[in-house]
Design a protein that fits this description.
By secondary structure, the protein is mainly alpha-helical. It has helices at about 1-30, 50-60, 60-70, 95, 105-115, and strands spanning about 75-80, 85-90.
Amino acid sequence: MDNILNATWLNTQYYVAAALLVLPFLLLLHRSKQPNLPVANPRKLFELSTARAASEFVRNARQVIDGFLEKSNGSNFQVNSEFGLLTLLMPKFVQEIRNDPRLSFARFIAQVWLKHLSFPPIM
């Protein structure tokens, strides 16, 4: 019986060690897929989710955006919102993205925003 418990404990140690080795790799892989843009309302150091940052953006989005624009050099940036991480582009890019079907505001509203309100998509 003692031998079985010892073998189980060794197997558990191997699984924990393997998970600790794989976890940093997965975190790096996940971060590499995100655009390299600054975030206007990032998570704090010990926050596990973006709930605080998203609720801050919902309550006073204008102040978050204006505060970031004062500190930055007018480049594109991201915000943590209730819909996740959103990218905000500067107005100088309007003419370039205006006719691109991949960047449709109506499609964004239909897919993301109306889904949260439980309306069926119109498009």
